[in-house]
Amino acid sequence: MNLGPLTISAPFCQAGLAGYSDRAMRVVARRRGCPYAVTEALLDTIMLAGGEGLRKSIDINDDDHPVAGQIIGSEPETMAPAARILAERGYDVVDLNFACPVKKIKNKSRGGHMLRDVSRGHSILRAVRQQLPRTTLTVSLRRAFDDSPDNQGALFELIDEAWRLGFAAVRVHGRTVEQKYLGRADWRALRELKQRYPRNTIIGSGDVFTAEDAVRMLDETEVDMVWIARGAIGNPWIFRDARLLLQKREMQRGGESLKSPFDPSACESLSPPSIPEQRAALTEHFDIAMQIHGEQLAGRRMRKMGIKYARFHPDAHDVKKAFIEVRSLRDWQAVLTRFYESNGGGVWPASTAADEVNDDPAMQTCET
Ligand SMILES: Cc1cc2nc3c(=O)[nH]c(=O)nc-3n(C[C@H](O)[C@H](O)[C@H](O)COP(=O)(O)O)c2cc1C
After folding, report:
1. How many whole angstroms from 229 Cα to the centroid of ligand 1?
2. N or C end: fewer C-beta atoms under 10 angstroms in the chain?
3. In the chain, which residues have pLDDT < 50?
């Protein structure tokens, strides 16, 4: 599929995830089939202040393309130059975050609050486009601010302006801003959106926890690409599996009927990552995180990542407990030596495992 001038080799994307989707997570996923990835939301004012904040915000290298840099902010005057920094530093796409359920700050809004301050959202879209006439731009939104009848037009007003300005895609999370991460994402709303904009690129988001969910979202909503968020944390194999299922679906369709729905029994042929595969991913992930953040911060970030990886281990409970204690590279290696030396198979996570990430405080704010 295409995103503006870019060719993306499969309709899946690793989401922006504050506190997670750094270059380490992106590269580990890419090596396992992730075709396109997004940074965590970068606060425009921090980037513009320069110094350490800017240095930490920008992290890109040759192994990490195509990649979108995502910015969040409340003023056109700061969002536009911040977008320019990302484009100049080599990000292939700039994504504007109008989706995060951040709190209002001093009467200024950012993230999902654009859905109830459409004129501010319009000003930001226009200012960024004016600053970057040729850059591939996308915008991330939620399906509405809330479910009140007078808010339902805001999404379309923002999207219509994005198309008018030549944005390459919009990404829509099927929850309202008020919902934050509670309740179900409304896939029907995604389907209706695609029907409304059949010729534009829509990236669908919300409740994609498995490779099967990703392919089912393509089928049920007909969006052009699926944004894989919580389902990718500690599961870089989700991209390899989603590609495999998509190939199977294409083969199925080539047979009887073009419209035959995705057959979930295809999933039976997927196997969970083996213990050696898990060990390799855990080792790579820590190595890259350490290069980026240094040992101490990598230890902190990787602790929560290890907990999510643990769900594929047959002794998930004990492995998770061991990862919780990790502070250093030595601790990390000790967990690998204790639990990841065998050549055995992994297991599919318990169905409740995906919910655990809801406890992450980063989720409440999307702050970076
Ligand atoms: C811990 C956490 C951090 C997130 N950070 C970002 C972010 O920086 N940028 C963004 O666009 N969305 C962010 N999101 C939202 C996700 O990308 C995604 O839209 C949302 O989780 C819905 O998808 P899911 O239900 O499949 O997880 C975050 C979500 C979580 C759970």
Report:
1. 6
2. N
3. 257-259, 361-368
Distance 15 CA to ligand 1 centre (A): 7
Say how far apart CA 287 and CA 307 lie, in whole Å: 17
User: Which token pair is 183?
Assistant: 């309740």
Nearest residue by C-alpha to atom 6 in ligand 1: 17
Residues 332, 326 contacting (CB under 8 angstroms):
yes
- Give tens-digit pLDDT for 53-62: 999 899 999 9
Q: Token pair of 83, please?
A: 């977008």
User: Ligand 1, closest atom to CA 97?
Assistant: 11
Q: How much is the pTM? A: 0.94
Q: Which helix (H) or strand (E) holds 253?
A: helix 237-255
Q: Which residues are 171's β-sheet partners?
A: 140, 203
Contact 138, 96 (CB under 8 A): yes
pLDDT tens across 96-123, in order?
999 999 776 555 689 999 999 999 999 9
Which residues face 337 on adjacent strands? none
304 lines ligand 1 (CB under 6 A): no
